């Protein structure tokens, strides 16, 4: 029947149309984006566990900031450096957001992962074009000098550089720091690793001299003066060396010449000496005698302290360098704590947490302490390995 045929046709067409609709639905699904490979997908891309994201983050945080760790010996300043680590906390421009646990993770890193950087070569541009050498850059960075601080030093240097040659003479240097040239003052050049009698100083040389000497602690300052006149490096001044030392203290405009003579006599006679291994009244004066003498006769040793004060006043000011010295002392306290607690930093107090919200200095000082402790730990390991190698060599020689 025609009606039945129409019904069959309609029935046959209905599954066909349904297939067409299914095909259309399938076609709509084909252009769907695979979130596993699409970089614009926000589902997996922002997750910390995403491989592409973590790889990119680790690459962007791979720049290691180098700092100087200063070690003072009888030969002068030995500039060394170590890396501070590659954690995201160390690279963040807002340290206040960093949790204290990041500091603990930093000092748990093995020393082998923190390479020592050389101080030779050109600067990395941390202070833009102000500094040329890496040594001067690392030195300024080690005591947290800012670009503004270095720019101020450059302005002071340029005021003395009348011919804009980029260099100043020795006489201009001593005129800048308001000091006369004598052994006590000219010894600064050899102390920081420059030639003993340089004819001219570049800005980087001026920075190394001024920053190094202005940042010395009182003990380091006295040690500088002592080693300068201990010519034979015996650890004690004889009569001739002590006479030269005391004679150099009597600079122009010094009105306490009699105090120097009294201090010299007292130190030689042994009244200033403490109980030690040497016999009292042996005519020799060691570093401890000089340190005790500065306490009992401050006027006699005033020129040593005044030399540093003049450098501080001529550069960034006495209050600024006092704050630098306080920061260095705080770093020493942190390092001492780390020695006693297997490299762990002390927890932040409530006051320090609040201070860290407004000042970046809190975490910067803790990072400096981590660097210094890591450097010490590396030195201990090197000495231990050298001792073992020496013992093995002696053992082999004994067997043969």
UniProtKB/TrEMBL annotation:
The record, for PROSITE patterns, names:
EF_HAND_1 (PS00018), EF_HAND_2 (PS50222)
Q: Which PANTHER family match?
A: PROTEIN PHOSPATASE 3 REGULATORY SUBUNIT B ALPHA ISOFORM TYPE 1
User: Composition bias, kind Basic residues: at what positions?
Assistant: 19-30
Annotated stretches, region: Disordered:
1-59, 80-117
Query: Which InterPro entries does this one have?
Result: EF-hand-dom_pair, EF_Hand_1_Ca_BS, EF_hand_dom
Pinpoint the EF-hand domain residues. Answer: 148-183, 217-252
**Protein name per its UniProtKB record:** EF-hand domain-containing protein
Lineage in the entry?
A: Eukaryota, Sar, Stramenopiles, Oomycota, Peronosporomycetes
Q: Specify the species.
A: Globisporangium ultimum (strain ATCC 200006 / CBS 805.95 / DAOM BR144)
On the tree of life, the source organism's domain of life is Eukaryota
Q: Where is the composition biased (Polar residues)?
A: 48-59, 99-110
Q: Give one GO term, molecular function aspect.
A: calcium ion binding
């Amino acid at each position: 029947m025609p009606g039945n045929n129409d019904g069959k046709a309609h029935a046959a067409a209905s599954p066909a149309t349904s297939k067409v609709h299914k095909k259309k639905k399938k076609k709509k699904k084909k252009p769907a984006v695979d979130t596993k490979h699409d970089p614009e997908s926000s589902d997996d891309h922002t997750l910390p566990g995403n491989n592409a994201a973590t790889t990119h983050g680790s690459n962007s945080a791979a720049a290691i900031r180098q700092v100087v760790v200063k070690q003072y010996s009888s030969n002068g300043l030995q500039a060394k450096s170590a890396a501070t680590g590659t954690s995201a906390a160390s690279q963040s421009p807002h340290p206040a957001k960093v949790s204290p646990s990041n500091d603990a993770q930093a000092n748990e890193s093995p020393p082998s992962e923190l390479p020592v950087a050389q101080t030779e070569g050109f600067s990395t541009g941390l202070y833009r074009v102000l500094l040329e050498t890496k040594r001067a850059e690392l030195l300024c960075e080690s005591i947290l000098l800012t670009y503004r601080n270095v720019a101020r030093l450059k302005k002071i240097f340029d005021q003395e550089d009348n011919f804009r040659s980029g260099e100043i003479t020795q006489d201009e240097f001593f005129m800048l720091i308001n000091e006369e040239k004598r052994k006590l003052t000219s010894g600064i050049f050899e102390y920081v690793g420059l030639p003993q009698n340089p004819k001219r100083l570049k800005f980087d040389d001026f920075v190394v001299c001024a920053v190094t000497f202005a940042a010395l602690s009182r003990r380091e300052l006295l040690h500088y003066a002592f080693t300068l006149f201990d010519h034979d490096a015996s650890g004690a001044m004889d009569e001739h060396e002590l006479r030269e030392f005391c004679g150099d203290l009597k600079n122009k405009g010094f009105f306490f010449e009699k105090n120097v003579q009294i201090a010299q006599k007292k130190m030689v006679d042994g009244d200033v000496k403490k109980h030690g291994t040497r016999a009292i009244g042996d005519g020799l004066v060691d570093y401890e005698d000089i340190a005790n003498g500065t306490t009992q006769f401050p006027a006699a040793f005033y020129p040593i302290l005044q030399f540093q004060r003049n450098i501080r006043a001529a550069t960034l000011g006495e209050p600024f360098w006092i704050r630098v010295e306080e920061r260095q002392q705080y770093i020493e306290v942190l390092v001492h704590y780390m020695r006693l607690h297997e490299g762990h930093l002390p927890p932040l107090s409530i006051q320090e947490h609040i201070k860290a919200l407004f000042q970046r200095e809190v975490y910067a000082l803790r990072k400096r302490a981590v660097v210094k402790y890591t450097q010490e730990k590396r030195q201990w390991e090197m000495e231990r390995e050298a001792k073992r190698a020496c013992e093995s060599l002696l053992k082999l020689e004994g067997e043969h």
